[in-house]
Automatic annotation (TrEMBL), chains A, B:
It comes from the Bacteria. InterPro entries: DhaK_dom (IPR004006), Dihydroxyacetone_Kinase (IPR050861). This is Dihydroxyacetone kinase. GO terms for cellular component: cytosol. One of its GO terms (biological process) is glycerol catabolic process. Coiled coil: none annotated. SUPFAM superfamilies: DAK1/DegV-like.
Length: 334, 334
């Protein structure tokens, strides 16, 4: 697959360099560790730090979400691979303002290990309290009874948004963790994959699908989904995705939700709007109110083709946090 | 090519439906014409109206740019085809607040004809003054001596931004036109294409390139570029693009610019940041200051692979307008 890159072994370094140069008012790279980025704005003493991160290849996640009302720091891994503890730890030390730091990351073995080690080291070396919330929104990745085993995908945006808003409002660490955990608990995502991406270093497709095939529940790194079949019209695909979400997390008539229709990379906004149209039809028929909508590329898998639907159920507190202002390079909300 | 759509003949209608449902606080569809969208916010009497538009398939352009500090109305055409005069005219009538309306659109025969007819009709039917600025930023599409023949591509974002800011600040129509024209005159874009897109109705690729080929100067609708050749490393590609821009529009040491690295659809943000990194290196070596940067999908060609670099030279007035706040569904600036 053709890519506009230089040396495949340094794509992440060159990407970070470009990113930091593009948004010097928003982000800065730590001298202590080139894979640790923090907000360029001064955050106030006593604010809980919000740290996110994971493998590269999901841009604009995660580095695009550094900014006020969202994350204070990001640890950047290699493509589809967790960052080691070092950048996590270094970012933690910088963004801690005396009230501790929350780690938000997807539930993948590597991330669990590395963020876990960093949390221990932060406590041991610097006495920094760390709370962790694992994102587990991917309905297709484990049965309902084992939600804690599910992978984290596009919904990480909402967990970060909720935690970022809570921290911005001066909540203490326990409360920021509680809010982030609630956002994760109140949220489900279902996705569909159409075409693979390829890693810069191998140039090989990450999985194979036939010319007219789709895969329901395909993971963000090409992990197998739950069903392969002939590509259906968008409405039928969305019906299936939303059905699976609502079967897993019932939503009553009159309840409010936030919706994210996320593109995986090469799927056009035209398709994403057509999908959103159907999500809106279904929810509106059920009397469920869409409080706020997000349509676009929020968390990609390089140039993978496909999309996901995330529904976040809103109580009063979460609605307030979803509405909270944010100012990141890749996401600004007034 | 696989697409998440329903009936290919109504993709534009379904896209607009989804878009309007997703952003009801930002946009509304006119009852008079379903292809005419206007801002949902009340604009004040005496503000010059800013109307943009063109073919679909370039999302988030053009409908994503409706909002304060940007466009007040958009006329939506079929895929890669100009809208007819009707939606342009209907949107014009709604957004005119007594001080006239500026039309900003890319220099394509169909758009020139249809926006031209709408402008005449607006005057004849409703006595609305219309000023027009054709965007001609694509260096590769005609020689320097015939700049007025060039096509408009990603740079339309900057022309809309400048005009939207000027209108927001209460400039009269002549001055909004002057500012928009200056933005166009002070701006150049060069692009590279890697992989084709396909139209929903045909499913056929819009052009052909070999497995390891790129095309410099390829147009937004697959119009032939100026040079086909083997895919080069990103730095060399960017060197070529920026070289051609600066040869066409010299920029002196100490001058300020805004830079847009735009993805055509399936090119990853990782690649765009790597490209931006090189743009910054070149300009910084020449002592040219990047005042503000934009990296992402601002104007696509469905799922085409490739990217473009736009450089806008800033005088004091344009710098102020580039910095002006904007609040659109696809673009918010504080």
């Amino acid at each position: 697959m053709k890519k506009l890159i230089n040396n495949p072994t340094v794509v992440v370094e060159e990407m970070i360099e470009g990113y930091v140069k593009a948004y010097p008012k928003h982000v800065r790279q730590l001298e202590e560790n080139a894979r640790a980025l923090v907000t360029a704005k001064e955050t106030c003493e006593g604010k809980v730090g919000v740290l996110i991160g994971g493998g590269s290849g999901h841009e604009p996640a995660f580095m695009g979400y550094i900014g006020s009302g969202m994350a204070d720091g990001v640890a950047v891994g290699n493509i589809f691979a967790s960052p080691p503890p070092d950048p996590i730890l270094e970012a933690t030390k910088v963004i801690d303002k005396g009230e501790g730091v929350i780690y938000i990351y997807g539930n993948y073995a590597g991330d669990v290990m590395n963020f876990g080690m960093a949390a221990e080291l932060a406590d041991l070396e610097s006495g920094i309290r760390v709370g962790s919330v694992l994102v587990t929104d991917d309905v297709a990745s484990a049965p309902k009874e084992e939600k804690e085993k599910r992978r984290g995908i596009a919904g990480e945006f909402f967990v970060t948004k909720a935690a970022g808003a809570a921290a911005d409002k001066g909540y203490n660490l326990d409360d920021v963790v509680r809010v982030a955990q609630k956002a994760n608990d109140y949220m489900r995502t279902m996705g569909v994959g159409l075409t693979p991406c390829s890693l810069p270093q191998t140039g090989k497709p990450s999985f194979e699908l036939e010319e007219n095939e789709m895969e329901i529940g395909l993971g963000h790194h090409g992990e197998p989904g739950i069903e392969k079949g002939e590509l259906q019209p968008a409405d039928q695909v969305v019906d299936r995705l939303v059905h699976d979400i609502l079967a897993d997390m019932p939503i009553e008539k009159g309840e409010k939700v936030a919706v994210l229709v996320n593109g995986l990379g090469s799927t056009t906004r035209m398709e994403l709007y057509i999908m959103f149209r159907r999500v809106e039809q279904i929810l509106s028929e059920k009397g469920i109110e869409i409080h706020r909508s997000y349509v676009g590329d929020y968390s990609t898998s390089l140039e993978m083709g496909g999309a996901s639907v995330t529904i976040l159920k809103l109580d009063e507190e979460l609605a307030e946090f979803v509405d909270h202002a944010a100012d990141c390079p890749m996401y600004v909300q007034k």
